[in-house]
Amino acid sequence: MKPLIILLLTLWIAPPVISQNYGALRNNMVRTQLETRGINHRATLEAMSKVERHLFVPSAYQKHAYDDAPLPIGYDQTISQPYIVAYMTQLLAPKAGDRVLEIGTGSGYQAAILAEIVDEVYTIEIVKELGERSKKLMGKLGYDNVEVIIGDGYKGLAAKAPFDGIIVTAAAEEIPPPLIEQLRDGGKMVMPVGPSASVQTLMLVEKQDGKIIKTNLTPVRFVPFTRQKK
Ligand code: SAH
Fold it and tell me: What's the alpha-carbon Rg for the chain, to the nearest Å?
């Protein structure tokens, strides 16, 4: 065969082969990293099987997108390990019809997972460049139920409150009071709480009949929750 024909054939065949590999890696990730560790919330597993995590990481890390690890996404930030994303999503127990707020858009991956399950996702990112990149990616992937807002998430998003679920993906010393206020009665919030330079505790906060119930779950390590300078 002529080299040009071989080249054209290779180009034509190559993309599906690559995406099939990612599909296999993704299914393997769901089975070996999530199901075996107790993730059993159906909608979470389906979203984790569907969303192409490799599209949310820089190209140099794409081949590691389904590894059991967090990855750098630029600007000193990271995309969480797949298990942590699934675990936090399962804790929120999201369902169709819900409205969810995320603080810390980062790559947009967690927002996409939620967008597969709930009706409305609002996600706030403090690093402008990351927010803009994610906004573009959400549009490209057709997630028209996600709104990316650039700003300091400490104050939440009063205009769209109350939320059925709030997920914070950066660690603060304490839970920002506006977020607790913006949680619907019966709603759930998941957030890492603790010192930024060390290990934090993943906390579940539930609002029931106006009462706040806090449960400490597991040690985690997240990037710090930062504040916008006045
Ligand atoms: N959920 C993300 C994880 C990103 S890491 C993902 O799926 O990729 C946490 C993100 O929180 C970082 O991008 C960081 O810039 C952002 N962040 C930190 N403090 C914040 C704040 N006060 N408001 C909004 N975003 C914040």
Answer: 19
Pocket around ligand 1 at a 6 A CB cut-off: 77-80, 103-104, 106-107, 109-110, 124-127, 130, 152-154, 169-170, 223, 225-227
Q: pLDDT, tens digit, for every residue of 117-175? A: 999 999 999 999 999 999 999 999 999 999 999 999 999 999 999 999 999 999 999 99
> Which residue among 19, 80, 107, 134 is the active-site one?
80
| Residue 73 alpha carbon, nearest atom of ligand 1 | 8
Which pair of structure tokens corresponds to residue 212?
């706040």
pLDDT of residue 183: 98
Reported as a single tens digit per residue, the pLDDT across 26-35 is: 999 999 999 9
Q: Quote the pTM value.
A: 0.92
Length of the chain equals 230
> Mean pLDDT across the stretch 88-110?
98
For each of the domains in the chain, give its residue range(s) and CATH number, in order of start: 2-220 (3.40.50.150)
Query: How many CA atoms are closer than 13 Å to the CA of 95, on its beta-carbon side?
Result: 4
Contact 79, 56 (CB under 8 A): yes
